[in-house]
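Hey team,

Filing this mostly as a record. A colleague (T.K.) asked me to run one chain through the structure pipeline before their review meeting, and I want the input and output archived in the tracker in case anyone asks later how it was produced. No errors, nothing strange. Just documentation.

Input sequence:
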Amino acid sequence: MGKRVIITGATGMVGEGVLHRCLQNEQIDHILLVSRKSYGMSHPKISELLIPDFFQLEGLEEKVQGYDACFFCLGVSSVGMKEDKYRHLTYDLTLGFAKKVLAANTNMTFCYVSGDGTRSDEQGMMWARVKGKTENDLLQLGFADAYMFRPGMIEPMKGMKNTYRVLRVLGFLFPVFRVLSPKHYVKLSQLGDAMIAVTVKGYNKKVLDCMDIKEVAKQE
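Output structure:
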């Protein structure tokens, strides 16, 4: 039997790309999109659960039972944000949601999209500390399996509606990034394939950088 997965953040670039890789993969049977607003696609594999406020999750456990994995692609930029607010919207939000889906699915694999430069020692720049703390506590939460993904420069997928405008403009530079900075560059399609691969087959690392993502994506 194929996997049943939850995806958050499908209305953003990363979540949308992961969604489309799941739609194209025969190992994924069903996808529950959990978002603040509808993605706007009708597909036999897709169902949606709209949550206006991710800090109000009463009763969520009953609505997310029976899933094998959660691909958590929801996130905010730290630009111009004070640490307490960024921590609230990153650490508190993610851990709060993760605890709910874990309570409903004790055998779940949890995949979290962090970022290149995240610090496992919880030191350094503000966003790197917060992301590091988020990763560390997710890994200790008690999921059957959990993986932290640290993509750097992400090459978007063609035809997606939520690609960041700056990446549309800089698209002509991606061939250069592939050659000059392979350790900090990954395709969005590879990120999606890697999440599916670790869910189906596992992986020997729990924190995956760009090179790990590209390697495990080949195994999908």
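Quick notes for T.K.: The helical segments are 13-23, 60-63, 83-104, 126-139, 165-169, 174-180, 188-201, 210-217. The CA atoms of residues 47 and 158 lie 24 Å apart.
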